[in-house]
Specification:
Blueprint lengths: L4 H82 L9 H8 L3 E6 L5 E4 L9 H4 L1 H13 L2 E8 L6 E8 L6 E7 L1 H8 L3 H11 L3 E7 L15 H13 L3 E5 L4 E8 L13 E8 L1 H51 L14 H34 L2 H6 L13 E13 L2 H5 L4 H21 L3 E6 L2 E6 L4 H23 L7 E16 L4 E6 L1 H16 L3 E4 H6 L2 H4 L2 E8 L6 E7 L5 H9 L1 H7 L1
Parallel strand pairs: 13-15
Antiparallel strand pairs: 1-2, 1-5, 3-4, 4-5, 6-9, 7-8, 8-9, 10-12, 10-13, 11-12, 13-14, 15-17, 16-17
Helix pairs in contact: 1-6, 1-8, 8-9, 12-13
């Protein structure tokens, strides 16, 4: 693949300048992008540490309160266990409402069976709560307490509905059948600890950090302890459980929402023997739209700068390339026009360099030489066409006479027309040799236009006769024959003025398969047509003398011509062609006769056909 000098120069500059500019722009963009992302990630890490620290602070505060309530909790279990023993372990006989009124309204009492189900309680909402389903791990610890018939104080937590602080403690019954549970609210610390509520702390973080959309603290089972109406999605539960069990951080982007979601586990130091789990999973959702906008603006700025520099470099490159390549491009355009056939194209002269000037002069001389050679070739080709019709070459699928070889041939179905002058011998005896040739050429020239206008061509001249070929429809040679006769009538008017007798001719036309080709040898060859079709046409032409007619056609022509022409034809005879056993029908075409004779033949056509 070849390129112009201008393209080569522009390409060299472009492929050096553009990559360099793009590389610099990309490097600047990458550095700035990295800095923005690092700052954003640093903000995320700091936020996560602060939230976990806040949660740890809440847990420490709850633990202090928990320790202060331990003695009170153990004392509260004394009447509870006594009531259980008094009822001889029959849960239905234990009056928890009366027992609560003795202990105080801050207390709630629960009895949990060996399956982890709350079967009796003063807190109606927790009736029939099944820990084996909602908190399997927690249930296992409860069952250990039941089996060991021991006391276990638990951590402080917040009520699901109100957020009030509550401490729980558990005691396995002596018969190891049930777990007694007491929950107590501490009004004394309630106001202070409400300031450490995770919902409020989370809201403070969201207000402080505009990029922080939400903070939610989940239990290990995916529940939110201080948001009872919160519905956790399947994907959230999956991420929470994964982070809770493995301790791994889950970090992913939701690009369609411009959000970054992070799940991180907050480990809490366990109290000895505690039944509940203090570890939490914190979900943080950050808004990344501002970061994305900054990165998009940064990318657009870098692209704009790169485009500006590329355009500026391109303009400079074009100026340099034009100065170097424009004179050569003009000469190239001129040469392209010359190769397209415009030999009159002016060659631009340039003094930009000696080499370009010499090139222009050389191309001008070359163009003149080509014009002279083409003129000679055109004259030769014109001369060839006088001897070999170009239509003949076309039928042989040859473009030039030089492409023709001895033996080239092609089988075709065509119409063959033969014509012959009737009284040439008697006329020629009255003329000098020069007059003979002039007379004969005038006669033959009068026939050629009719043949050519009807899509035929003259294959050869045979003395005063003509053989013409018609490759298309059968109407063509018949129309040509009629026009030839009409043209001859006009020529006879001129002959009469010059004292030449009236000239008449006969025409024979037949249609059939033939072989068109070349014969001879390499040094001398000619075109010819080989077929019985030619012999039949010649035979029909000669029969005009016998019947006193001007135009005779065969039955194969008659079958193929239009109805209009058929109306100008009549059956003359059936003849046997020399060398053939079959007979052919012979029809006269009287379309070239004068009006009186033509009308007479039309009127007698039916009777003539019947008589025949």
């Amino acid at each position: 693949m070849r390129f112009s000098l201008k393209i080569i120069i522009l390409s060299c500059i472009f492929f050096i300048l553009t990559p360099a500019l793009l590389l610099l722009s990309y490097a600047d963009y990458s550095n700035a992008k990295r800095a923005l992302e690092n700052n954003f990630n640093f903000m995320i890490e700091q936020t996560a540490e602060n939230i976990i620290g806040a949660y740890d602070l809440v847990e420490v505060s709850y633990r202090i309160l928990s320790l202060s309530l331990e003695n009170e909790m153990e004392k509260a279990f004394v009447p509870f266990i006594n009531s259980y023993n008094k009822a001889e372990g029959i849960v239905a006989n234990i009056d928890l409402t009366r027992l609560k009124s003795q202990l105080g309204e801050e207390y709630d009492l629960y009895i949990i069976d060996a399956n982890g189900v709350i079967i009796h309680t003063t807190f109606a909402k927790d009736q029939n709560l099944d820990f084996s389903k909602v908190a399997p791990d927690f249930n296992k610890k409860l069952q250990n307490i039941r089996k060991e018939s021991r006391y276990q104080g638990d951590r402080i937590s917040s009520e699901t509905v109100t957020g009030n602080v509550r401490k729980y403690a558990y005691w396995g019954t002596p018969d190891k059948k049930y777990i007694l549970e007491i929950g107590i609210k501490s009004s004394q610390f309630e106001a202070a600890l409400k300031n450490l509520d995770l919902l409020k702390i989370s809201a403070d973080f969201e207000e402080f950090n505009p990029e922080l959309n939400s903070v939610i603290v989940f239990n290990g089972n995916g529940k939110v302890s201080n948001k009872p109406d919160f519905v956790t999605t399947d994907s959230q539960i999956k991420n929470i459980k994964h982070s809770f069990k493995t301790g791994d951080r889950v970090d992913f982007n939701k690009y369609q929402n411009s959000e970054r979601w992070i799940y991180i586990k907050a480990d809490v130091e366990e109290e000895d023997g505690a039944a509940s789990q203090g570890d939490k999973v914190i979900e943080m959702v950050f808004d990344t739209s501002k970061l994305e906008n900054k990165l998009r603006d940064l990318a657009q700025n870098q692209i704009s700068l790169a485009i500006i520099f590329i355009i500026a470099g391109g303009i400079i490159s074009i100026v340099l390339a034009n100065r170097i390549a424009k004179p050569i491009s003009r000469i190239t355009d001129a040469v392209r026009n010359i190769t397209g056939g415009d030999l009159n194209q002016n060659i631009p002269m340039s003094n930009s360099s000696r080499e370009v000037e010499n090139l222009s002069i050389g191309i001008s001389k070359m163009t003149k030489s080509i014009k002279d050679k083409i003129s000679d070739i055109e004259k030769i080709n014109t001369s060839y066409e006088r001897f070999v019709p170009k239509e003949f070459l076309t039928l042989l699928d040859k473009k030039l006479i030089t492409d023709v070889d001895v033996g080239d041939n092609k089988s075709l179905k065509m119409s063959v027309l033969f014509s012959d002058m009737r009284n040439f011998t008697s006329i020629s005896e009255q003329l000098t040799p020069t007059q003979n040739f002039e007379f004969l050429n005038n006669y033959l020239n009068s026939l050629a236009p009719a043949i050519k206008s009807n899509d035929g061509f003259i294959d050869k001249y045979i003395g005063d006769g003509v053989m013409a070929l018609f490759p298309n429809k059968a109407d063509d040679p018949v129309n040509a024959a009629i026009e030839m006769n009409l043209g001859l009538e006009k020529l006879n008017v001129e002959f009469k003025k010059n004292g030449i007798d009236k000239v008449s001719m006969g025409v024979g036309i037949h249609r059939g398969d033939l072989i068109l080709g070349t014969i001879g040898q390499t040094e001398r060859m000619e075109t010819t047509v080989i077929s019985d079709t030619v012999n039949v046409s010649s035979r029909l032409e000669s029969l005009n003398k016998k019947y006193g007619t001007s135009i005779l056609i065969s039955g194969s022509i008659m079958e193929s011509i239009s109805l209009e022409l058929k109306s100008l034809c009549r059956l003359i005879d059936k003849v046997q062609v020399k060398g053939k056993s079959e007979f052919i029908e012979v029809y006269e075409v009287f379309g070239g006769d004068d009006d009186e004779i033509r009308n007479m033949k039309i009127n007698t056509k039916t009777n003539s056909n019947k008589t025949f």
